[in-house]
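FW: tagging you since you asked about this chain on Friday. Here's the raw sequence from the shared folder, copied in full. Didn't touch anything.
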Amino acid sequence: MAHLWRADGRRRNCQLHGSASGTLLAMTDPSIRLYDSARQAVVPLELRDPGKVSMYVCGPTVYAPPHIGHGRMVLVFDVIRRYLEWAGLDVTFVSNITDIDDNIINRAKAEDRDSTEIAIKCENIWFEAMDRINVRRPDHVPHATEYVDQMVDLIARLVETDAAYATNDGVYLHVENVEGYGLLAHQSLDQLQDGGGDREIVGTEKRHPADFALWKFSKEGEPSWPSPWGDGRPGWHTECVVMSLDLLGEGFDIHSGGLDLTFPHHENERAQAIADGKNFCTHWVHNGFVEMDGEKMSKSLGNVQNLLDLTEQYDPRGYRLLVLRSHYRSPMEVTDVSMRDAEAALERLDTFARRTVASAAANSPDEAVLAEFRSSMNEDFDSSSAIDLVFRQVRAGNTALDDGDEAAAGVAGATVRVLLDALGLELNETADEAPAELMALAEERTAARAAKDFARADEIRDEIAAAGWTLEDSPDGPLLRKA
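HL: got it, structure written out here
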C-alpha cells in the first residue's frame, strides 16, 4: 500500500501499479484554460465528453532523424498530456506516422532503396529519440499506409459533392467552396493569395492557385494504390484528417502540433473536414519555434540539429528542463550555453533529491504549493512559472536542511517530487558507488567536522575532488558522486 497525492493535496491509499503516467491521482479541475490558435485567445478547455480529453498531435514524416524542433514539439505535448492526466482527466492521445510522402520517395530514389525500408528505419530512430527524452508513447500510432482505403473514400465523397475535382495529375480540393478558408492563418483567401506568392504549379489544371492535392498520380517506380481516378497516393493533408477522425471521432477536443503546421497543413485538414460535413475539432494548439543564434531553426537556413546528437552531447533530461523553462508558445533558444545551464540546474535538483531521500518519504507535499502549481499550469500550461516554483521549493528545502529542520526539508522534497513527476522530469537521487578508500575519507571528514577541525575537513574535500568525485552532505551522512 502506498500514499498517492491528488492534485487537491489530499492523501489517499491505493496500490501502485507502475503506470507510465506516474503515481499522482487528481480530481478533474474545470478551470483549465488554453490558447486556441483559431480564436487567438486563451479560452476555457471545452470537452466533448466530461472528464475525458481527446487529443491529436501531428507526428513525423519518417524520412530523416528527428531534429530538436521535433523534440520541443513532442516534449510540449507530452507535458500537456501528463498534466491533464495529473489534473484528473482521462486522456486519449493519438499521434500519427506519415509513411507516404514525397520526401520518403525522393530519399529512396537517391539511395536506390525501397521507400518502405526508409520509413521503417526512420520510424525506429524516431522512437529511439522519444525514449531518450522520456516522451511517453501515444495511445494510438496510426500509419498513413493503414488508412489509404478510408482516404480514397473521403476523396470520393468530396468529388461527388463537387468539393473536389480530378485533373491530369491528381485530385484537388476546391478551396473557394470552403467557408472560412484561411481561419488558422487569420487571412481571407484573397489575402492569402496576394501575400503568399504564386502558388500555381506548372502543368496542373487547378481551378484556384490555393487548391491542394488530395490524391497524386504516381510516376513509374513510385509506390501507389488504386483509386477511381488512377493509381497514386494520398496527399499529406488528407492523411491526418482521416486518421484523427477515425480514432477520436467528430468534435474531438485538441488538435496540436508545431506552429509551422498551422498553415497550410492544419488549415487544409480543417478544410477537408468542413467540405465533408464533419465537425472536426474544438481547440487548435501550437507550440513556438526553436531558435539557434537568434534565427528560427529550418532546413533552408542549415541550422537543423539532430535530436539524437543532442542527447549524446548533453543529459537528455536537460532538454525537457529547457522546454519547461520556456512558455510553450514562445520562441526557445537552444545553444551550448542554454543546455549547459539546464544541466547545472538538473544537478541542483538531483543534489537536493539525494539530500532528502529519507525525509521526503516521511512527509507530505505542501498543499498550498500544489495549489500554486495548478494555478500556473491551468493558465495555458505555464510551465515556466511551474518550474520557477520547483526551484523555490529546492532553495527553501536546502535552507531548512542547513538549519537542521529535517521535517521542513522533507515537505519541500516531497513537494518537488510531486511537481516534477507531473511534468515528466525524472530525478537522479541515487548516489554513485564510490571506492571504499574515498568513502573512508568521507567518514573521516565527518569526524573532523564534528571535532571542529575544519582545516582537515577542507583538505579531505579537496582530496576527494582531486580524485574526480564531489562530496554532498545529507542528514543521512556524506554522499559521493562522480564529478
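FW: Residues 318 and 346 are 7 Å apart (CA to CA).
HL: agreed, and Confidence is low (pLDDT under 50) at residues 1-29, 195-203.
FW: great, closing this out.
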